[in-house]
Request: fold
Amino acid sequence: MKVLIVYAHPERRSLNGSLNDFMIGRLRDAGHEVQVSDLYAMRWKPQLDADDFPQRDASQRFDASADSKRAYAQGTQTADVAAEQAKLQWADTLILQFPLWWFTMPAILKGWVDRVYAYGFAYGVGEHSDRRWGERYGEGRMAGKRAMLVVTTGGWASHYGPRGINGPIEDLLFPIHHGILHYPGFDVLPPVVIHRTSKVDEARYAEETAALARRLDGLATDAPIPFRRQNGGDYSIPGLELRPEIEVGRSGFAVHAAAA
Amino acid sequence: MKVLIVYAHPERRSLNGSLNDFMIGRLRDAGHEVQVSDLYAMRWKPQLDADDFPQRDASQRFDASADSKRAYAQGTQTADVAAEQAKLQWADTLILQFPLWWFTMPAILKGWVDRVYAYGFAYGVGEHSDRRWGERYGEGRMAGKRAMLVVTTGGWASHYGPRGINGPIEDLLFPIHHGILHYPGFDVLPPVVIHRTSKVDEARYAEETAALARRLDGLATDAPIPFRRQNGGDYSIPGLELRPEIEVGRSGFAVHAAAA
Reply:
């Protein structure tokens, strides 16, 4: 496999840094090729703005979508963005590794998504008709590739359980799993989540890395979350609502994954 | 009222820029004081890292929580962070205004949260015992203040409906409403959401601003989302699970708001 790990933690000498090293070693030992985008080490620019489009007509107002579309089509994106897109095209597997900060990814990683996910690359792909609404949610340029999150949290597992006060971890991660990964076509594997990071001693570190190793070993074979395909018949077009005969009377994030 | 608007859009000559001007005008005309943090104009630094703590011992490994705690307690935070905290303490009402990018806030606004929400200011507040688990989720330094999101999306309202493919907008916003606003104590008002931004002509702009005006006029009086208080008896401590006799058999984000 060719694995891209996008890693967002500000301190290498941390649990996340150790887990990053562990993943790289495990994957390479198994014969895989690994590239790492260490966003803090790269001093990744987080904010999407007009500076991302140096060839644009500065007399016109900045339009994030239109300027992105033009720059992607004309090959005038900034080098940092184009390099990340090339890594994504090279990879067959993407791992996003980050600590959960305020119930989602750190700003620097959100800024990787905002900037690398160009119009024509991750959205605005494919035709819109009465049968298809673009290539997204199961189709798109990342189709055939797999993705997985490796996430740490400071809270307890119960705080992120079905009735835990923070909300269920799978629902907190849904906007990433479904809206950021499934959207441009990735098959999304269940996440690796390590809770209560301040209480990881040597024994727990050994347990957590053993579990992580099993998940890395299963990257190519584990079953993905069965998110529905937008253009596969389950949704009305263009309203994009789940058809009434499916998941009758139910709503919310969970209806977008098919029952096992 | 004293209203702080934190605004995150890269182009002033945009729908969001117009809405921002409209809100400032409407609030000032009604006699309110308004401060605006225009994050792009301020060139806000999004990424939380060791540079945020210039007085820290650089020979030690960086710990986002521990370094934040120390700097907040000792008054050695960076000036930009301290200024935003002072605005939050000045305000009785907070509005976060942003375009929904990849189903959450733009990186620059996430970075405002990551950096301004210091340990001792927005988290790590209050004592932990068998009756209280810190002052959070309804308590904390923002208690007594109100907050509201003003959000634009490119998609259709139906795409964000109960069975819409993107997921219900209230669930997509839950990690912000509950995890970022209710957490340090804000009372959270229902959001203002304007969909399909590419199709806003003059007639629709008039409608949307009229609706926005009504919401601004109701900032002090509209009923907030009835999120439960962590230490109010509804949750076990320290497991922080909703007690079994409440919302029997239900789970997910919705159980954390009391039924009407």
User: Anything to note?
Assistant: The longest helix of chain B spans residues 202-217.
